[in-house]
Fold:
Amino acid sequence: MAEDITITYETLFELFRREKDRQELQKLWDSYIIDVSEFIRGQQKIVMSDPLTPEARKKVELHLDNIKRIIRELYERREKKIVSMALDRTRTRSDIFDTSIMLENERELFNKLVGVLNNGRHVSLVSMTSPSEKPPEQKPEPVEQKVTKMVRFLHPVPKFLGPNLEQYGPFSEEDMANLPAKVADILISKERAEEIEEQ
Structure:
């Protein structure tokens, strides 16, 4: 989890409020998805715990539903902004868009949208201006392929730099992270982590 950030209902609500009130896409820490997933699992364990009275269980379940609603609405607001950014990128052909504020999965979505929109825009414009000519086949802009692996840490691992000088960690025992395959393979070979196979 990012330093000094503890996931709570209030934390998530503040992220949602900030995303709703500001036009620009807001920066989230890199492990946001993993941290929120772990937080949800923790809340679900509370719901399933035996000592809870029916009234207390209902209250916790309602709290969990509210948390999931905020997470979903936050995602949808970010998704709309990313779609809008992809449209702007296609229309202006500008390279000044800062994708570093996006999560990795959001960056992949943005790149794919730009490729599809560029292709569709070119084909449409060519067919309207030169209907008698067959438009040349347009390939989407290359999308950076990031092969990753989900791993679970078997031992604590301090901060470290990857092959391209990206910073990772620190990680605690039992933490899970989606890491570039090269980084994950090194951790696995050193028996610091194990791969979690996707179902």
